[in-house]
Specification:
The protein folds into two domains: 74 residues, no CATH class; 33 residues, no CATH class. The chain is α+β, with helices and mostly antiparallel strands. β1 and β2 form a beta hairpin. Helix content is 44%, strand content 12%.
C-alpha cells in the first residue's frame, strides 16, 4: 500500500507516530530527569532548561511506523537549504511554545 492508494489513512498513521513519540518520551523521562537534577540540584521547580529530542522513525512498505532511535543530543548543523529550513522552523516553534519574544519583559 502507498499513500496514493485507496484505504491509506494518513491520520491513523500520524496517530501511531504520536503514540510512539509519547511512549519514547515516557521511557526517556527518568534518565533525563536524573541528568537534569544532577546538573541543576537547586532548581526545585524544574524551570531552568528544556531539551529538544529527535526521533528517527522509519515507515515500512506496509506504512507501519517503527522507532529507530531517540536523539537526546540532536545536531543543529545544516548541510542543505532544506535541512536549514527544517531546523530553523523547529527552533522557532520551540521558542513559540516557550512564549519567548523580544517584547517579553523580565519580572
Amino acid at each position: 500500500m502507498t499513500q496514493n492508494e485507496p484505504g491509506f489513512d494518513a491520520k491513523a498513521m500520524m496517530e501511531k507516530i504520536e503514540d510512539i513519540a509519547v511512549k519514547a518520551a515516557i521511557s526517556a523521562q527518568p534518565a533525563l530527569s536524573h541528568a537534569y537534577r544532577s546538573c541543576q540540584p537547586d532548581d526545585l521547580e524544574n524551570s531552568m532548561c528544556f531539551q529538544i529530542m529527535g526521533l528517527d522513525i522509519m515507515i515500512d512498505t506496509k506504512l507501519k511506523p517503527w522507532l529507530l532511535e531517540i536523539n537526546h543530543l540532536s545536531s543543529f548543523g545544516t548541510d542543505s537549504p532544506l535541512d536549514k529550513k527544517i531546523k530553523f522552523d523547529l527552533i522557532w516553534d520551540t521558542f513559540t511554545l516557550l512564549n519567548m519574544s523580544v517584547k517579553r519583559k523580565r519580572k
